[in-house]
Amino acid sequence: MSVTTSSAPARGMNVLGDLSEHLVRVMERNGADLSQLGIPPQPAPEGDLWEDVSVPQARARRLAWERSVEDAAHQEYLQFRFFTGPLKLDANQKPKTLQNWLDSLVEAKRSGARPETLNMIVPGKIGTGKTAATFALGNEAVLRGIDTLFVKHATYLTWRRPDSAPHNMKAWEVRKKFVECELLILDELCGEMDMTATEFARRETIDLIDARISSGRPTAYTTNLRSRRQPGNPGLGVVDILGERLLSRLESSAHVATILGVDRRKPVEPLDW
User: Fold this and answer.
1) Strand-by-strand arrangement of the 119-123 sheet
2) If phi over 0 gives left and psi between -120 and 50 gives alpha, with beta otherwise, what is residue 160?
3) What is the per-residue pLDDT for 99?
4) Mind listing the pLDDT tens digit for each residue in 58-108?
5) Pairing between strand 119-123 and 148-152?
6) Which burial class, exposed, middle or buried, applies to 131 when counting CB atoms under 10 A from its CB (0-12, 13-18, 19+)?
7) Strand spans (E) along 40-103
8) What would the DSSP string read from start to end of 160-205?
9) pLDDT exceeding 70 applies to what percent of the chain?
10) Does this model's pTM top 0.70?
């Protein structure tokens, strides 16, 4: 009869507490909640935020951000930064404004206070670099200890419908994820909406924005639309699509950083086809 010793556990009989160090590292890298396995979390830092990417919390934060970027198929934007690197922002993309706002968010988190300015609205015409600017914001925010996620407005609405979210997520998990992250980048607000929003879209959008404002969690929005319809311009504004109440909530604690310039994606020479 075989005997299992403490130094040589029977094959396939390891208890959760005997997880190998390698397996624990793999789970940490993928953002697993090790507390569910009885492994105590690493204590939070005293007096400052995690900035060392080797710390499990920072690694999980980075992975969550990168996954949200991958879900949007925008991995090429992960290299954008405010002032450094080959994909740094130009002056038209308001890097100083975005940096100052991020500084205020970091300071508010350090002091446990509600940010004075909760919303950053980044409007501009198609192709002017709004999305790149907010990706630089997200990339910098993650490095500075802010749990950040990215999602397009239309994508969020799709994922809130039954059985439509990725990674086998439930609709309620989608809401929880994007309501509770410390900084949300909501891209293309009212994108692909050329008429009054459906009741579902209006309800879900107001719920998301209200929940984040009520809990004091900042949000950055990009949009191709003006806030309101302009005289002599047939184009709709955000208020025409989603209503005055939503716009009032959005603007109640907001700074606007309008991105100017030409369409960066437009070819230098017109295409003949």
Assistant:
1) 148-152, 183-187, 219-223, 119-123, 254-256
2) alpha
3) 98
4) 888 999 999 999 999 999 999 999 999 999 999 999 999 999 999 999 999
5) unpaired
6) buried
7) none
8) TSTT-SSTT--HHHHHHHHHHSSEEEEESTTTT--SSPPHHHHHHH
9) 74
10) yes
User: Measured between alpha carbons, how far is 134 from 68 in angstroms, rounded to an integer?
Assistant: 14
pLDDT digits (tens, 9 = 90+) for 155-200: 999 999 999 999 999 999 999 999 999 999 999 998 867 666 688 9
Residue 156: Cβ within 10 Å count: 21
Place of tokens 């709004």: 130
Cα(48)–Cα(221) distance, integer angstroms: 28
> Nearest Cα to 167, choosing from 79, 64, 248, 80?
64
Residue 140, amino acid: E
Q: How far apart are CA 129 and CA 94, in angstroms?
A: 10
- Distance CA(250)–CA(57), nearest Å, equals 31
Residue 111, CA distances (Å) to 82, 114, 253 in order? 24, 9, 19
Query: Under a CB-based contact definition with an 8 Å cutoff, are residues 250 and 123 in contact?
Result: no
Q: Which residue has the tokens 């998301």?
A: 208
Secondary structure element (H or E) that encloses residue 148, with its range: strand 148-152
- How many percent of the chain have pLDDT more than 90? 55
Residue 53's pLDDT is 46
Between β-strands 148-152 and 219-223, what pairing exists: parallel, antiparallel or unpaired?
unpaired
Q: Which of 60-64, 99-103, 252-256, 262-266 has the lowest mean pLDDT?
A: 262-266
